[in-house]
Amino acid sequence: MVMSPTWRGCTWLRISFWFVAIYMGAGDAWATRFTMNPDGTSYLDIGDAYWQGDWHMAINAYWSPFYSWILGLFLKVLRPSPYWEYPLVHLVNFLIYVAALACFEFFLGNFIRNRRASGKEPGETGEATLPEWAWWALGYSLFVWTSLVMITIGTVTPDMCVAGFVYLSCGVILQIRAGGAPLRAFVLLGVVLGFAYLAKGVMFPLAFVFLAVAMLSLGNLRNAAPRVALSALVFLVITVPFMAAISRAKGRLTFGDSGGLNYATTINGVDSLYPGDSGIFKRPGFPYIEIEGLDIIESPSSKKLLHPVRRIFSTPATYQFDGHVGGTYPFWYDTSYWQEGVKPHFDLRDQADAVIRGIDCYRLLCLHDFRYLTVGLCILFLLAQKRWWFLKRAAANWPLVVPGLVGLSLYAFTHVENRYIAPFVLLLWLAAFSGVRIPRSEGSRRLVAGICIGIATSTIVSAVWYVGQNPTGASCIEPVYWQAAMSLKELGIWPGDKIAVMAKEPVGGSVLFVARLARTQIIAQVNRPDHFFAASPSTQTQVLRAIAASGAKAILTPDEPPHAASGTPWEPLDLTNYYICLLDKGR
Question: Is 171 part of a structural domain of the chain?
Answer without folding.
Answer: yes
